[in-house]
Design goal:
The protein has about 200 residues and is mainly alpha-helical. About 70% of the residues lie in helices and about 0% in strands. It contains ten helices and no strands.
């Protein structure tokens, strides 16, 4: 999260030595993970190389295109220029992190197709993904104990942003608040358009 906040601050791009330090730490971390997993008995070689180019491209999309898509689904619309600029920012970051040029989309249309291709190749139901999702939801629940309404809203937001298919793969529990959330977002978007 700190890295994401860092690269999204324009002033930090004026400090190349600090930027290089952050980038180098991430690249070394990726290399360390690849090395360790290649030399451990618990890694299944059928899974392929960890932190490979496709994984990194997908992660880069999750910080750029998927963020923009999620915001749009929540009723916040970036201008076409803002969206392209944000995608470009993360393409620069991805390039610095070692993502090959061919896996960096040059526009939102390319980002859409790259995301779709990676999802078709990689998104499958897995016990590991479900356990991780459940653990993350449990951590969230401990952060707001006795706040059932907030947890239901969080689950509804996940369903709204991720969609039914991905939530089914991850076994994200449904929330009765889902319809209400969708209606609130549409209402908010309508008022925003009306008063703009």
């Amino acid at each position: 999260a700190r890295f994401v906040r860092f690269v999204n601050k324009a002033a930090h791009w004026q400090k190349p030595e600090l930027l290089q330090s952050y980038i180098l730490k991430i690249r070394l971390f990726h290399a360390f993970i690849r090395f360790k997993l290649r030399h451990t008995a618990t890694w299944n070689s059928a899974w392929g190389l960890a932190v490979n180019q496709e994984d990194m491209a997908g992660t880069n999309l999750s910080f750029s295109y998927i963020v923009l898509r999620g915001l749009r689904r929540l009723g916040y619309q970036a201008s076409p220029q803002e969206a392209e600029d944000y995608l470009h920012l993360w393409n620069v970051v991805g390039s610095l992190l070692g993502v090959e040029e061919a896996l960096l989309p040059h526009n939102l249309k390319e980002a859409f197709y790259l995301d779709k291709t990676i999802a078709q190749r990689q998104f499958r139901e897995s016990a590991e993904g479900q356990v991780l999702t459940r653990a993350l939801l449990e951590v969230f629940a401990t952060q707001c104990p006795k706040q059932l309404y907030i947890i239901r809203c969080f689950l509804a937001t996940m369903h709204h942003v991720l969609g039914k298919e991905i939530c089914a793969l991850l076994q994200v529990p449904e929330s009765f608040s889902q319809k209400a959330l969708g209606q609130l977002i549409r209402l908010r978007s309508g008022w925003q358009y009306f008063w703009a």
